[in-house]
Write a structure and sequence with these properties.
Length: about 250
């Protein structure tokens, strides 16, 4: 589904990614871990097409298509979803209207009619129940006055409604208490299928107790320096990152 080859990228002439190679197949969950400043969030932003970052070398291939010249909104229409680490507040735009607009814009890009109102209502209700979201929440302005947990749950609600092929979750667990973490993780697990894939970016092994990855990759200094199973995340929890950094130098 996703192939990243020798990806180099940076911002303001600062090199951040220095040769990322990654393959993600349908049905897989990949966890990306690493110390602060290693390039995890930059990788998420570059996959989504954030224009602040410049790709200087390498390729991102999504479902056989080179994304080099593809705008962020087109990537979203093709099925790439990014859950933000710090979701922004949009006063005056309700959660429901935001999601409706996103769905219908994607349908339009695919040559489809707007989703009928009764179908949309049914989908909103079904996904809200799945994520234990109060219906009143859907009429609130997007992220305005939301707690950290509500913002992250809202990101997963958007993911549930949009049903992307590839979801990139950028530190969805940061700032969550254990109950909010469980609800968010359960939502991700319920949305998992053989046809979609998830990249989870996290600092902490605790999220991976709930969202069990098929593969764990460690980024250090802009490169993936080690890959393994969930056991690698447990090892990092126990030992920290220093041994990884030492291995990378050798």
């Amino acid at each position: 589904m996703l192939t990243i080859k020798n990806l180099h990228a940076g911002v303001d002439n600062k090199k951040i990614l220095k040769g990322i190679n990654l393959e993600v197949n349908p049905g897989e969950i990949h966890a990306i871990m690493g110390p602060n400043g290693s390039g995890k969030s930059t990788l998420a932003s570059v996959i989504a097409g954030k224009e602040d970052f410049e790709v200087t070398r390498g390729k991102i291939i999504f479902e056989g298509e080179d994304l080099d010249e593809v705008a962020p909104e087109e990537r979203a229409h093709k099925g790439i979803f990014l859950s933000f680490q710090y979701p922004v507040e949009i006063p005056g735009v309700s959660v429901t209207n935001f999601v409706k607009t996103a769905i219908n814009e994607t349908r339009k890009a695919r040559g489809q009619e707007d989703m009928p109102a009764n179908e949309m209502l049914k989908l909103l209700k079904e996904k809200a129940e799945m994520l234990e979201i109060d219906r009143k929440f859907l009429s609130r302005s997007l992220n305005e006055g939301f707690s950290g947990g509500e913002k992250k749950r809202n990101e997963i609600f958007q993911m549930a409604m949009l049903e992307p092929r590839l979801a990139v979750l950028d530190e969805t667990d940061s700032g969550l208490d254990i109950d909010a973490l469980r609800i968010v993780a359960n939502g991700v697990n319920k949305l998992r299928s053989k046809d979609n894939a998830v990249i989870v970016i996290t600092h902490y092994q605790r999220l991976l107790d709930y969202i069990v990855p098929d593969f764990v990759h460690v980024i250090h200094d802009g490169k993936i320096v080690k890959s393994g199973t969930k056991d690698l995340a447990l090892e990092l929890e126990e030992k920290g990152y220093d041994w990884i950094k030492q291995e990378a130098v050798l």
